[in-house]
Amino acid sequence: MLEAINNNELPAIPGKRYFTIGEVSDLCGVKPHVLRYWEQEFPQLKPVKRRGNRRYYQHHDVMMIRQIRSLLYEHGFTIGGARQKLTDNESRQDNDQEKHTIQSMITELEDVLDILRR
């Protein structure tokens, strides 16, 4: 069994564009077969696949894996619970983004209205 290391104790993520499954395994403290399993369980995790079906993870994928790892290993979530938590976080972020967009549109329309009234 892999020993539980906190995400704080994991190595820094290098400034590369793509990472192999072996590199991600080392960066996240998770074995490659676990990463392949998580790809099936978490729709947010979609590494780029190239020649010979080789996986190439990007920085956001590594961050997502660390978040999943934290939920499962540090916070004690089940796979289903972690999936739900990530989905809830995504929809909350989407709602915040929509509210911000709507607010900036309102501000711009008010500015246009002020210009038209002059």
Report on this model:
- The chain has 118 residues and is mainly alpha-helical.
- It has one domain: Multidrug-efflux Transporter Regulator, Chain: A, Domain 2, CATH 1.10.1660.10.
- Helix content is 62%, strand content 5%.
- It has helices at residues 21-28, 32-41, 59-74, 79-117, and strands at 48-50, 54-56.
- The protein has a two-stranded antiparallel ribbon with strand order 1-2.
- Strand 1 and strand 2 form a beta hairpin.
Provide a brief overview of the structure:
The protein has helices at 21-28, 32-41, 59-74, 79-117, and strands at 48-50, 54-56.
- By DSSP (H or I, 4+ residues per run), the number of helices equals 4
Mean pLDDT: 87
Shape: elongated
Query: What class would the helix/strand composition place it in?
Result: mainly alpha
Count the beta strands: 2
Strand order of the largest sheet: 1-2
Which spans have pLDDT < 50 for at least 5 consecutive residues?
none
Question: From the 3D coordinates, which CATH architecture would you assign?
Answer: Orthogonal Bundle
CATH topology: Multidrug-efflux Transporter Regulator, Chain: A, Domain 2
Overall CATH class? Mainly Alpha
Q: How many structural units, i.e. domains?
A: 1
* Helix and strand run: HHEEHH
| Largest sheet entry | 2 strands, antiparallel
Q: CA-to-CA gap between the ends?
A: 72 Å
Estimate the helix proportion, in percent: 55-70%
Rg from Cα: 20 Å
Estimated share of beta-strand residues: 5-15%
